[in-house]
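A quick aside before the break. I want you to see a complete sequence-to-structure record at least once, exactly as it would be stored in a machine-readable document. Don't worry about memorizing anything.
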Amino acid sequence: MCDYGPMDTCDIIVIGGGAAGLMAAGQAARSGARVLALEKMDYPGRKLGITGKGRCNLTNTAAHAAFLKRFGSGARFLLPSLEAFDNRSLMDFFSGIGIGLVAERGGRVFPAGVRAPRVARALRAWCEGCGARIVCGCPATEIMHEGGRVTGVRCGQRAFSCRAVIAATGGASYPRTGSTGDGYRLAGALGHTIVPARPALIGLVTRERGLCACDGLSLRNCRARLLISGRERAEEFGELQIAGYGLNGPVILTLSGMAVDALLARKKVQVSIDLKPALSREKLHARLKRDIGSRGAEKLGSLLRGLLPRELVGVCCTQAGLKPGSPASALKQPETERLIDWLKNFTHTVTGHRPLDEAIITAGGVSTAEVDPNTMESKLVRGVYFAGEILDLQADTGGYNLQAAFSTGHAAGLAAAEALYGDSNSRFL
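That is the input. The structure line, written in tokens, reads:
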């Protein structure tokens, strides 16, 4: 049972108590608005509390242009809110509420010495300290409107009157945290176009078998190329993991959005992995020649341990047609070529992806063509704003998506509060 108290009427209602919702509610409240945040779960910030495998990758230190590039076609929409509240602003914000930060490999920014749940609690405390009221266990069922203007929010049989609503309900991934796609239905009922939800930043299922022994194996400093219908479409360098079902890890997550879209279009999708990107074919030839010269009496499988993790030796020999038990000195030229081909082109055919509820984020959502990028306000219904993953806005892994949630939440909160005291009609002329 929700403890609503006397606050049936307020200025702004925020639907959703995640990263975007808490930022929006806090910014609106500190601007003088009476703010009520409605969270469907028993406490806010559940998804924030598990991000980054519990470490909470809040943002990235990438320069402005490089940061925007990670959003692809969504960069133009994000530009105004990111300029107003960028990665440096966010880092200053968290430092100001007692969360120290540290930048790690790839510019990823994490809390220093604390886990993600502590970050979620600090954000909630800040939001409430700004004057916002958070009510948990209260799923919104309708955004009410009349004459093209929002009038309130319904939660089951209870209705709340307000002058503005900020929808920050998240996407459709990790449903146990409350992200079950509710916002898509709420926005759709207002007439908004909803780009179909699909997984982004997700593990890829591959056709290749015999990799169970490699389940959980991490491979660092690899170069992965995404091939669609035989043509290279993207390339990433870094770490990936081999799983029993296929491929995962940072490099794969970055490539996965484009891979999923290609699969939906029924195109052939492959991932080619260069396990030795620092070595050219010529250098690999020279390396093998030296190793065989000094260790030729050893079995080939033993010699390959100098090039590969133990778990991959058998896979390599099977796929390259080599005999791991034969003397390394018996390796013939055609076999050497096949070995080098395999090391430079360890190829996987993608047949699917992991379930939507495992996606770090979802692609799709409210069409950004129907939202003002400066204020996050709906172009269809006055007084309705959107923030965070409910929008059709997504980026690569590395802290970019959380930054987008905070930036759009910041923009929506300030704009909604400002509109209470000014003339917001100009945005609809």
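Two observations worth writing down. The chain has two domains: 12-198+364-428, 203-353. Confidence is low (pLDDT under 50) at residues 1-7, 423-429. We'll return to this after the break.
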